[in-house]
Design goal:
- The chain has 218 residues and is an alpha/beta fold.
- It has 2 domains: 40 residues; 132 residues, 3-Layer(aba) Sandwich (Rossmann fold).
- It has 8 helices and 4 strands, in the order H-H-H-E-H-E-H-E-H-E-H-H.
- The longest helix is centred in the first third of the chain and has 17 residues.
């Protein structure tokens, strides 16, 4: 097993939530944080208009609606309070049905949006070096690659000022987030096995049917 440096997941106190300094473990990242770095980051929140506003609006929504609004409702509230004018949606084509429903909700709230599916460009996976045996169709005809970079570039060209990821694959979402020009949130993460609810794998990690018994030494 790889030896990992102690960090926040090794802390049982989580005393940073209320700055209970007497409860900080000796490896506490708050206690050992570089004061200059903390000051630098605080100044970003205080002086960068966009970062400051996003932080304040997020905190206010959390305080007002914690445990009361769904993720969809929180997203709508965030868009309205941030006064975003055009919303970009980078969607997996396999979740376009869910995206259509969300689009209708945006429209009902008089929020402009633009959707780009992941197969935009219809470039065959062979063009980026994916062998036939690794394709879903095993090479029996054209199979379009997911194209998150073109999704990001297309939304930038459309002038979206806030983007939402719906169901992009692991790695494809990474590329979208790396190349997006606008602030972005993730609404749905893909997990076909668990009905797009990946945290269920963690909730059941210690159960009799867990696939993680070896890793957790159960």
């Amino acid at each position: 097993m790889a030896k990992c440096k102690l960090s926040c997941s090794d802390c049982a106190a989580l005393a940073c939530r209320a700055k209970s300094e007497e409860k900080y473990p000796n490896f506490c990242l708050t206690a050992v944080a570089d004061p200059a770095r903390v000051k630098e980051v605080l100044e970003i929140y205080q002086n960068d208009e966009e970062c400051g506003e996003i932080s304040r609006v997020s905190a206010c929504i959390e305080g007002e609606f914690y445990g009361r609004l769904t993720r969809v409702e929180e997203t709508i509230e965030f868009i309205k309070r941030m006064h975003y004018k055009k919303i970009g949606i980078a969607s997996c084509v396999g979740l376009m049905g869910e995206t259509r429903i969300f689009s209708k909700i945006l429209k009902a709230n008089k929020i402009d949006y633009y959707v780009v599916g992941c197969k935009i460009g219809a470039i065959d996976k062979s063009e980026i070096g994916v062998p036939d045996e690794k394709k879903l169709n095993k090479g029996c005809g054209h199979e379009s690659m997911c194209n998150p970079i073109l999704q990001a570039k297309t939304l930038q060209a459309e002038g979206t000022d806030f983007n939402i990821v719906i169901g992009l694959c692991v790695g494809h979402d990474t590329l979208f987030l790396k190349h997006t020009a606008a602030p972005t949130t993730v609404m749905i993460v893909k997990d076909r096995v668990l009905g797009h609810n990946p945290v269920a794998a963690l909730y059941t990690a210690t159960s009799i049917y867990s696939r993680f018994k070896k890793e957790l030494k159960l």
